[in-house]
Design goal:
Oligomer: single chain
Order of helices and strands: HHEEHEEEEEH
Number of strands: 7
Radius of gyration: 18 Å
Shape: globular
Strand order of the largest sheet: 4-3-2-5
Distance between the termini: 65 Å
Length: about 160
């Protein structure tokens, strides 16, 4: 094999090993992105995502593999994905009180939920807004119910 082809092959293998090959964007992940984008990254209403069977949505941020503690029942995130061993992803878990309905690996660069890591929100309280203190970073926190519509813009406010 000529040296140029060998160098090219080595470069391709090196670049492939540096990519996040364990992460393939799911349809649920795309739905989250689409809602964020449609709302101009100002808010997201998780109650409209993940189907109709779940009663709570839980967030696991980087390095937080304590899924059983957050969910309140036996389900180990590490048996389903290892993305939380780095700081590039969150895992969003749609669940009932006894089982996981669906989980989503979500890139933090597309929208970050780390401030909610280890927390679960009921479907009724699953409205998140962009954290005003995050600057250019798209970090989301739970919507405060006492926040006036004028603070986030009445036309942009999530329902509820």
């Amino acid at each position: 094999m000529p040296i140029n082809k060998l160098i090219t092959l080595a470069l391709i293998l090196f670049v492939a090993s540096c990519t996040d090959s364990g992460y393939i964007q799911s349809e649920a992940s795309k739905s989250i992105w689409n809602q964020l984008e449609a709302n101009e990254f100002k808010f997201i209403d998780f109650s409209k995502l993940g189907g109709s069977k779940w009663t709570k949505v839980c967030f696991l941020g980087p390095y937080n593999e304590s899924s059983e503690k957050a969910l309140g029942f036996s389900w180990k995130v590490t048996e389903h994905t290892d993305v939380l061993k780095s700081d590039g992803h969150n895992v969003i878990v749609f669940a009932t009180e006894t089982q996981v309905v669906e989980y989503v690996v979500y890139s933090r660069g597309s929208g970050d939920f780390w401030k909610l890591s280890g927390k679960c929100l009921s479907r009724e309280s699953a409205n998140l807004v962009r954290d005003e203190e995050s600057g250019n970073w798209r970090n989301y926190v739970q919507k405060r119910h006492n926040k006036s519509l004028n603070q986030i813009g009445a036309k942009d406010a999530p329902p509820g």
